[in-house]
Amino acid sequence: MPPKYHGFGDRRKDTFKSMSAAGIRRSTYVRAVILTVDQDGNHTINPPVNRTESSEWEDVVKASKTKKRNEAEDQARSWASILPLLLEAFKQGCGVETPSPSALVPSEDSLPCSCREKDFKFVRCIFKCGIRHFQIQFCKKCPQHKLPIVLMRRQLFPLTPKNPNVAIHVEQVRSMHLMHYICHTSIHHAISEWARAEYHYQLPIPASFKQRLSEALPMYARMMANLEKEQREAFKLESGCPACKYMHGSKTVAADGNFQLSRYSRTNERSKDVVYPGQDEVNRYWVTPENVVLYNETANEGCSNFQALNKKGGNKRHLEQTGVFACTCKHGYPLVAMDMTTPGETFGYILSCLKQVVQMPHYGTNIKVCYDVGCKLRTSLEKTESLACIKNVPIAVGIFHILNHSPACQLSCHPRVNAGWGLQDGEHLERMWSNLSGFISMTRSMSSLNRRLTISTALEFYAQQKIDNIGINLKRKFRRACLLRRDALKALRKVGIEEDDEEKLQNLQNMWDQQIRNTLASITNGSGRFAASNRAIENLRVAIAIFDLIDNAFRVQGNGHNRTQSLAAQRQAARDQVARKLKIYNEKIRAGPVFGFEEYDDVNTVLHKQSRFRFRMNIVNLMTGDQPCDAFHGLQRANEELAILKDEATSVLKYADALVEQLKTAVKNPIGPYSLPKYYEQKGMVLEQARKLRRARAWKKEQMKLLVKIVDSITAQTIEEENGDEEEDVAVEADGVTDELSRVEEVLDDEQFEIDTEFVDTFPGNDDPL
């Protein structure tokens, strides 16, 4: 920088500032300026002397970065060392007094230190209703009575592991925790700024609050994860998907990858070597190292339209993790996840996830697999020795992706035309990725440990959301299956086919089987005019499907001007692509005719909703005749769905019954004789189970109301139309009330519920359920 002049005469000085590469001011050098007079009487100043080399400043910057990395590593190790003590103090504080959201003073410390010499420190305490200063007494000698532990015992979570100046009440930090994982708000930019705006008018918040909160909230998440693990193992509580756990039929496992949840590479990330207590609970959803399957072969079989498993390009060297691969059950409950490190999805990811799913006691080999590229999966299962037990499992492709597969793949992998799949769409992962989309930007620059913690906790919240809404979702599916069954029976009756007419239904099945054989016989991968015509038909079908997708998005109201203009341009480009493919199609059809396909004059003819080409490319339409195969498949899938829903609803009620009984046993667990600290710790655990028991009872009562008709399979189910005015009775086959339902009803009749079906309030007031 140019020198700045101050003063006159001999006291004149120039100042030099050294700046780092990041623009941070490092130091200031001042030296006296000696004025000289030339022979003409003009004053001159000697030019500044460069007394430092650029390499010296590089050393300063390097040393500063090393110091910061060492401080971050020391901070992480300090948190890891006191995390078990914080959890113990949290349970003791809950045993002394139930945390109250309206608190404005710390709770009393009922376990004071016996040492004579005590220290005191003023700590800024942030509550839900205000911010206060309090003098906290602690002991530097006793590990159980250091300042962070004393604060935690008094229901204040410290923001630093050593000598904290700021602490947050457990109810407030819990609200921030929920805000982060439910509302998908960033800790660094959103939650900390909200806290500063909320409390700064009462007492000034230190400038370091944002950084300290970014470090403390992940530690709170780790502490709560360890608490959940301890309670689950101590009282053997139910876990997993309620609809799958006690289900007798085969369970669906959906798989998919997400390349948006990537993470940048970080040099010299020392904090990843820190071992946090309870890290196995954070890794509960992730593939263990012993279950990783190395499979390097390419995918040559199946449909050639999808190349996700063969993707090799792309510069991903700046990414340490390119995405996340995961599996869920058909109800959206997350089962297993795995970090991806390659540009595309390889067979190793899905094989590793399936290997871990097979080892789960409630899934095993009784599964069905739904994968976007499921047509290529069978050979890899046969070649993997550890997965030979599931090499013959049913495989399907989600309905959002199946339309872009070839007709042969659609006939063998479409869940709507193959038995056993019911009415599920197979796109369960897409919903989960949509829920996790709020964490994409905030996890991209995190450390590897914090990223895994954030995604694992987000998966836990998503799983709990699926459990809370399981009854509502099953009831919605039941109503949909009844409506589809009614419409299918109406369509079949129009052509003179009744549900009990087995001969005519079998004729429909035979015609469909012949349709499959004819379609597969017409498809060849060899050379010649016939193969070229089939490739032209498939290319035109894909182009029309892309046009339909863009056209539907274009017709949605509320797109806005910019989006509408963009979609209009994309729609025109897709239409031009259809015109090019149609020109090639007409040339190939003239050279090698294919039965059922003819030439078309213009684009409008082939794009018409009732065009002959669209009719022929619908796999449920027969090449000859007009038999209602669509209604036939709809009736089959609806009947399958009703049977599956009955099995799932029974599983949910059994799960609720078992969970309530386990929590009742935990609450009745005798306390003592223990030492006073152990007494408060055990009492805090029991009080936590009592709160869970109230929530579980309300959830159980709600599921009973929603699912009793599904389990009972009554002979007439009232279906309310969407407008709320019309109601129709739809026949549903009756099997009577199951023994499981009768047993659950008896238990529910004996229970006395203390709260209504609203179970949102997890932490009530100071009422003692014991």
Automatic annotation (TrEMBL):
It comes from the Eukaryota. InterPro entries: KDZ. It holds the Pfam family KDZ. This is CxC2-like cysteine cluster KDZ transposase-associated domain-containing protein. It comes from Circinella minor. The lineage of its organism: Eukaryota, Fungi, Fungi incertae sedis, Mucoromycota, Mucoromycotina.
